[in-house]
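so my prof wants the structure for this chain in the tokens format not the other one, which i didnt know existed until like an hour ago. anyway here's the sequence
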Amino acid sequence: MRASGQIAAVLLAVHHPPLSFSPAKPSSQSLRNDFDQACQQAGFWPDAVFSGHAHVYQRMTRTVQADGASRQIPHLICGAGGYNITASQEVDKSDMKASDATDPQFRLHQFLTHYGYMRLTVTPGSRGHHGTLRMEFLSPNVNSGSPADVCVLDLDTHQWV
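here's what i got, hopefully its the right format
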């Protein structure tokens, strides 16, 4: 289906993050292990992984070897639109910060503690043009309406543009 062009992008969405740099809402190592095992058995990796749970925004890249090539898989936590009793309960808390951001499999690109939401745009490939996945985090607290974070993934090469 993917090679036929009928599916432009494959996105995996889970509640608990396979990786989180937030000490208050840590990553799920068992979910990461299950995810790896399923992908390896299927011989197929998603284009991006989305999760919530941590009431922050984090954008990470995981690099895996697939089909003899290096593949960058964005992992985004966008739990910054989640429910809480007061605005200072989790989002915008001064103590909500990144823990040690060194992990041999993941690179942390962005960590924001403001309310916000994701906007995704998938552009299918066409003659001579690669398909892309554009991911934007928008927040009323950051950049006056412009995206607080923007990234674009080439869906054919599985590399950041």
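also thought this was worth mentioning. The longest strand covers residues 57-66.
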